[in-house]
Amino acid sequence: MNLATANPRRPSSGEFIILMALIISLVALSIDAMLPALPLIAADLGVQRINDSQYVISVFFAGMALGQIFFGPLSDSVGRRPAIISGFALFALGCLLSIFAVNFEQMLLGRLLQGVGAAGPRIVSIALVRDQFKGREMARVMSFVMMVFILVPVFAPALGQLVLVFADWRYIYVMFLLLVLILVPWFWIRQPETLAQVRRVRFSFTQLFLDISAIYRIRSSLGYTLAMGFIFGGFLGYLSSSQQIFQVQYQLHELFPLYFGILACAIGCASLFNASLVMRFGMRRLSNYAMNGICLVSIPFLLIVAMQDGHPPLYQLMAYLLPLFFCFGILFGNLNALAMEPLGHIAGLGSALIGSVSTLMSVVFGVFVAAAYDQTVVPLVAGFAVLGLAGLITMRWTEAEQVTAG
């Protein structure tokens, strides 16, 4: 039976938006809800070095990087529904491994599988939206989806902490598993296949290699992807060490989700403002403003932090992080769009490859920044400053060709 006609009754626009938002939000929930549980996981599974608990976050990102490059071409070959369901299955298997983990290594293997699996629904659901909507209608649907997605990091740590009030940390993974068990039948029953048989492309490693080579011969795609990797590296360093900084260093304890949520709101507000700002200033100018902003606030603050032995007052740290994360919110969408701009003919693979490479870079740099945490914020601020400069230099190199051509 053709999957495209398996369910002639499509979900309403509202139902479709809610379903896609929940699917895409699984990634953010899987990362941020774990943050309050990191010290409990370390204690329960016998982690010797407290900084090693950060691998719960970074290993998930590594799995996502691997999954994106696989699920993008897979969905073009077998269809959207099988690719998304396969991703859910891997994610559920990873949850089970983590729930029943007897040591830290087993739990990290579960997190790796969760990352690989989550990449499938995350990247293929965007292709599914693109299959059904075009132009302004697609922009409208994605704006509603992303509004929900933006809210998840604000509340996810509080949700994880709420679970810990009543149960063991393993029940956070049970919560993820239950969400998948709700989403899979809902998606399979209500959402028909959107990629017709005639539009499917036979999977070929040779063609994949040729397409990848073509993408990275385009200077703008390569340059903006590298810039994303640098910037996301600093952000991953923050995600991995945020629990230690706020809960341990600043002794915020149960208030950690509140401060984390406030900073997440800065990113969300920037994403919403960007929709109107980009029409006036353009993606390149906004990205340059934001990248310069990261450097201009990070380098002076690094000097201030160094003079305060790495422990500035909390209000100073928040006053630094809020504008910094606003800049991140501007960059997250624009850099990806700039890297994708010349790849309309291979948009599916291009999106997967850009996401995979930038995420792998961010894992390398983010692990380095977070592992350097020494009960001060010096490594984090230094990471933002150095990686921000690297991103800025990369953008200058990328755009030098366009200036010359102009």
Helix-and-strand structural type: mainly alpha
Q: Radius of gyration, rounded? A: 21 Å
Q: Identify the overall geometry.
A: globular
Tally the structural domains.
Answer: 2
Characterize the structure shown:
It contains 14 helices and no strands. It starts with 12 loop residues before the first helix and ends with a helix. It is globular. α4 (80-99) packs antiparallel against α5 and α6 (135-166) runs antiparallel to α10 (256-281). It is mostly helical. It has 2 domains: 7-203, Up-down Bundle (Growth Hormone, Chain: A), CATH 1.20.1250.20; 204-406, Up-down Bundle (Growth Hormone, Chain: A), CATH 1.20.1250.
Provide a quick synopsis of the model:
Helix content is 80%, strand content 0%. The chain has helices at 13-32, 38-44, 55-78, 80-99, 104-132, 135-166, 170-190, 205-215, 219-249, 256-281, 283-307, 314-340, 347-371, 378-405.
Keywords summarizing the entry:
406 residues, mainly alpha, Growth Hormone, Chain: A, 14 helices, disordered N terminus
Strand and helix layout:
Blueprint (H helix, E strand, L loop, with lengths): L12 H20 L5 H7 L10 H24 L1 H20 L4 H29 L2 H32 L3 H21 L14 H11 L3 H31 L6 H26 L1 H25 L6 H27 L6 H25 L6 H28 L1
Helix pairs in contact: 1-5, 1-6, 1-7, 3-4, 3-5, 3-13, 4-5, 4-7, 6-10, 9-12, 9-13, 9-14, 10-11, 10-12, 11-12, 11-14, 13-14
